[in-house]
Amino acid sequence: FFTDFVTGKGTLDQDDWAWDEFLAFLRLAKTPPANILLSSYWTMGAVRHGDYIAKVRFTPDPAAAAAVVRRDIDPTSAAEVFRPALQAELQERPYAFDIQVQLCTDLERMPVEDLTVEWPEKLSPSVTVARLRLPQQDISSPENLAKMDALSFTPWRVTAEHAPLGNIMRARKEVYRHSSIARHKLNEQPRTEPRSADEVLGPAR
């Protein structure tokens, strides 16, 4: 596996061997399983932030994260472990994520095209610009699971001011679209694009 991955099964010149990608994979593999409420989530690639270039992340609100009871997850303990832990936490208490923006201040050290390069916080610290609040709720019903299973996610469902940037993000647009089409066809589910937030979330209160 190691040789095949790094050398592209012998198709890559030595200068192009995928060392950065492999080391990123190793770092990810070393991350211990935990409740998904305790993880941070990034846009992967860069996006527009008005007239600027940025990366966006959702990171747990410290107070909300401290209240989580079911923290460590054992993937071998059951067929499904992450969803039951999430259900139990949200049944007991609300939760919140801080939405943070990191602006690109140096295209050489904070590249758009090479996603294996971590943007240094010392060059541009992430700034909290909003908060995502998850109310206390019961998400365990089969109807809720069916609605979730019919959803499609894409980084391109945004306004022009926040459009994704870079080759990988452009590739994701088509990969995600074709994946959604295939999954909905296999599951015999209708596939539609929402025309407003109300169609997904219900009218604002």
Order of helices and strands: HHEEEHHEEHHH
Number of strand elements:
5
Based on Cα principal axes, name the global outline.
globular
CATH architecture of the largest domain: Beta Barrel
What's the Cα radius of gyration?
A: 20 Å
Per CATH, what is the topology of the largest domain? Catalase HpII,  Chain A, domain 1
The averaged pLDDT comes out at 89
- Helix percent reads 25-40%
Question: Short description, anyone?
Answer:
The chain contains 7 helices and 5 strands.
Provide the descriptors you would attach to this structure in a database record.
205 residues; alpha+beta; Catalase HpII,  Chain A, domain 1; five-stranded antiparallel beta sheet; globular
Report on this structure:
This protein is α+β, with helices and mostly antiparallel strands and 205 residues long. The chain has helices at 2-7, 19-29, 62-66, 82-92, 142-149, 167-186, 197-201, and strands spanning 41-42, 47-49, 52-60, 95-103, 127-134. Strands 1, 2, 3, 4 and 5 form a five-stranded antiparallel sheet that branches. A hairpin with a 2-residue loop joins strand 2 and strand 3. The chain folds into two domains: 1-31; 32-197, Catalase core domain (Catalase HpII,  Chain A, domain 1, Beta Barrel).
